[in-house]
Design brief:
The protein is α+β, with helices and mostly antiparallel strands. Helices cover about 50% and strands about 10% of the residues. It is built from 15 helices and 8 strands. The strands form 2 sheets. It has a 4-stranded antiparallel beta sheet, with no helix packed on it. A 4-stranded antiparallel beta sheet has the order 4-3-6-7, covered by helices on one side. α2 runs parallel beside α4. The chain is elongated, with a radius of gyration of 31 Å. About 0% of the residues have low confidence. Belongs to the unc-13 family. Pfam families: C2, TPR_PATROL1. InterPro entries: C2_dom, C2_domain_sf, Munc13_dom-2, PATROL1_C, UNC-13_domain.
């Protein structure tokens, strides 16, 4: 009977007239009333106190099914209208608010079953188990309704994207002499007008979700605009956007009346802020950040690695950095015969610390996945340079090809500040070899690579990007 009543309510749906500022329609009122009457019956037969294994549990299941049926009908109609494919462009903002509020009204009505006082407080095991099952049933339905409401509300942010994009563009490309606090005015005025309307038309919980969606849209537009500046724009361009990001965070927090600050400073905000810092950093600094990330990943990568491992000894002796490349095992096969012809390239990084240290390489070991080199190399470098926290030895394993370019097999890094002879005055012998897992790159959309790739007139950036693109794992 409840499901039939909901279907009829949706078929006869019409806007609620009168002085109601919050937008909603009759179908949500009828469905909420149906849930209210079911809740009265549930209470009258004792709720969970008489044992939810009987009629009360079935009534609870019926209430959840009723609320979810309403959400299914609403979403089915929206899908048939192409609402999700065209991001709600066939609906006005008011119509979208009505849909979102309808779902929220029904969710609020079902949430009444989740009140603590509606379940028994008895402590026997059976009662506690049945109470928990009942709560999980209701909360599962509430979670589904929340997800449906969030999906229906998504076009609110999509509808705002064109004017939002225009306002962010105005902010980014305003004259350099115009302070950020003035350049951001059109953007803040648009946001204030847009959010004020939503605050009037939406229920509080729905408005909070819309506010979070709008903040996410703002972050995306600011990030996109920062990337659009590329390397040709002066640093003041990205500095302005970074200042604007702080002003926007304060706007959405609204002195505690908007989003909580931990929701403003979310993961997405952190990524955009980091991207801003990368844009402002010179190429040499970005290369050192990249190297630090690779060293950190080396520490996190366990043995065995899917790309094999390399065995080396590294120590500082007198005025030289000594590297013994001993062997590798389980190198990935890169030749048609299921083997490889591996060799190792040794390089000291960053170049700022070791400007005169050139790359060196081992001999090629033919047709093997477990090569043995037993070769020693020396780099004439200062102890002071090796003690730098950024100093590292890069070991990259390659497969030699005669007719085509050499294939990348994996790489490993050693932080020089930790090796014998650098972090201690103890004699370097006897030395235990280091077995290092070999790694490959996986994130083709790494922000540092993207930003360096945009610096088309910077030879250092272009050379680095070209070099790294050879090191990505096959998808």
């Amino acid at each position: 009977m409840a499901l039939q009543r909901v279907r009829v309510a949706v078929e006869l749906d019409r806007p609620v007239e009168g002085e109601h500022l919050v937008k909603h329609s009759t179908s949500s009122v009828d469905t909420a009333a149906c849930l209210y009457h079911m809740r009265l019956v549930w209470r009258a037969i004792g709720g969970s106190e008489e044992g939810t294994g009987g009629g009360s549990l079935r009534l609870l299941e019926a209430a959840c099914a009723t609320a979810l049926h309403y959400a299914d009908l609403v979403h089915g109609a929206l899908a048939d209208q192409g609402y999700y494919e065209n991001h709600g462009q066939n609906k006005t903002t008011e119509e979208i608010c009505t849909i979102v509020n309808n779902l929220e009204y029904v969710r609020r009505s079902l949430a009444e079953y989740d009140d603590e006082h509606m379940f028994s407080n008895r402590t026997d095991h059976l009662s506690m188990t049945t109470d928990e099952n009942a709560r999980q049933l209701v909360r599962g339905a509430l979670g589904t309704l929340d997800a449906r409401s969030a999906r229906a509300a998504a076009p609110l942010a999509a509808c705002a994207r064109p004017p939002l994009r225009k306002a962010v563009f105005h902010l980014a490309w305003s004259p350099d002499t115009l302070p950020t606090s003035q350049a951001i005015t059109p953007l803040l005025e648009f946001l204030d007008q847009h959010l004020s309307s939503l605050n009037t038309w939406l229920l509080p919980r729905a408005f909070t979700r819309a506010l979070a969606g709008c903040w996410s849209a703002v972050l995306k537009e600011v990030s996109t605009q920062a990337d659009a500046g590329g390397a040709e724009r002066p640093r003041v361009y990205h500095h302005r956007l970074r200042e604007a990001l702080d002003l926007l965070a304060d706007f959405f927090h609204a002195e505690g009346k908007g989003l909580p600050m931990h929701e403003v400073h979310n993961i997405e905000w952190g990524r955009v802020e980091q991207r801003m810092q990368y844009h402002q950093a010179p190429t040499e600094e970005l290369l050192e950040i990249w190297l630090a990330d690779r060293l950190a990943e080396q520490m996190r990568t366990p043995l065995p690695s899917p790309y094999g491992s390399i065995l080396v000894r590294v120590y500082f002796n007198h005025d030289s950095l000594c590297v013994e490349v001993m062997s590798a095992r389980d190198v990935i096969p890169l030749d048609p015969n299921g083997l490889s012809d591996p060799f190792v390239v040794l390089e000291l990084l960053p170049k700022r610390l070791f400007p005169k240290a050139h790359e060196q390489s081992t001999n090629v070991q033919k047709k093997t996945l477990n090569p043995v080199w037993d070769e020693c190399f020396e780099f004439t470098v200062s102890l002071e340079s090796c003690r730098s926290a950024q100093a590292a030895l890069s070991l990259s394993v390659w497969d030699r090809d005669v007719l085509t370019a050499d294939d990348f097999a994996g790489e490993a890094f050693v932080a020089l500040a930790r090796i014998p002879g650098v972090n201690s005055h103890a004699p370097p012998d006897p030395l235990r070899p280091l077995e290092l897992p070999l790694m490959q790159l996986h994130d083709r959309n790494h922000p540092i690579l993207q930003i360096l790739e945009s610096r088309t007139t910077d030879k250092m950036a272009m050379d680095f990007v070209k070099k790294q693109k050879l090191r990505f794992a096959e998808q």
